[in-house]
Known about the structure:
Helix 1 crosses helix 3, helix 4 (121-131) packs across helix 8 (166-185) and helix 7 runs antiparallel to helix 8 (166-185). The protein starts with 6 loop residues before the first strand and ends in a 19-residue tail after the last helix. The protein folds into two domains: 1-116, 3-Layer(aba) Sandwich (Glutaredoxin), CATH 3.40.30; 118-255, no CATH class. The chain has helices at 23-35, 57-64, 98-115, 121-131, 137-141, 146-149, 155-161, 166-185, 193-202, 205-213, 217-283, 288-292, 322-328; strands spanning 7-11, 14-18, 49-54, 74-77, 82-86. Helices cover 53% and strands 7% of the residues. By secondary structure, it is of the alpha/beta class.
Amino acid sequence: xxxxxxxxxxxxxxxxxxxxxxxxxxxxxxxxxxxxxxxxxxxxxxxxxxxxxxxxxxxxxxxxxxxxxxxxxxxxxxxxxxxxxxxxxxxxxxxxxxxxxxxxxxxxxxxxxxxxxxxxxxxxxxxxxxxxxxxxxxxxxxxxxxxxxxxxxxxxxxxxxxxxxxxxxxxxxxxxxxxxxxxxxxxxxxxxxxxxxxxxxxxxxxxxxxxxxxxxxxxxxxxxxxxxxxxxxxxxxxxxxxxxxxxxxxxxxxxxxxxxxxxxxxxxxxxxxxxxxxxxxxxxxxxxxxxxxxxxxxxxxxxxxxxxxxxxxxxxxxxxxxxxxxxxxxxxxxxxxxxxxxxxxxx
Length: 347
């Protein structure tokens, strides 16, 4: 038995019953329920609601009954206007922010109060998730590559999946959420308001969808499947490729760095060997020409003019050219001599 007696808190149309260990949680849930007591497209609820905070797993199982999956964080019982939520000691296997979880269950009760038993299960769960703002369910779709390669279930097929195991149910909840959000987005101004009005009048969802959005229920189902597959299947592939790329880079970058370091060390060793061989060759007087078998040209003598406009060609016998010899015998300061540049008279 939990310590102490249960405590009852009343405010507005809500009554919360909790044990002392969960009293702080109960007050937080009550404040949240009072602050947000309206739901998209529906009239404001009026029925009184009892919220019971289960102190442990055994009490949670006892209060929800044997026909309800026990892996959830909370359960709504519309026929009794009651909600059972897990307390701190109830060990929820399917977590969630407690105030969001409570709003999800309150949306079930509000939908039942306004529409009775008209809603199929997929719409019931999808609407509760949409009203609670559980947009995190889209993250599950964004990681499912199967959306690109497997056909999506029909809306009716979701009903059975919602009561399956926790893994299958989470996927079905995400798809149901996406279906209701898609319906609401088809009329940005009125959202689901006209849908509920026409649904209440005719008692048929297909009639209400056609009147509210100008599309048949079958046509909407095809639209929902196509858009969900394209939007979230592509995101899943991109996400997987991104993760794979990051993983590959995490492996490759260190390997490239190691390879570059090794190449640098190898090149440095080769440079050291080259410098050592050059030093040894210089010490032994070995020239490049000698290594290549080329005869070394003699060095020019001191005072020899090399190149330029004043250089002259040598005869093959080594004697200077006549013109050079003639000009060398002219005294430039001798005015009585022949004019500069003219040939001398023969001796």
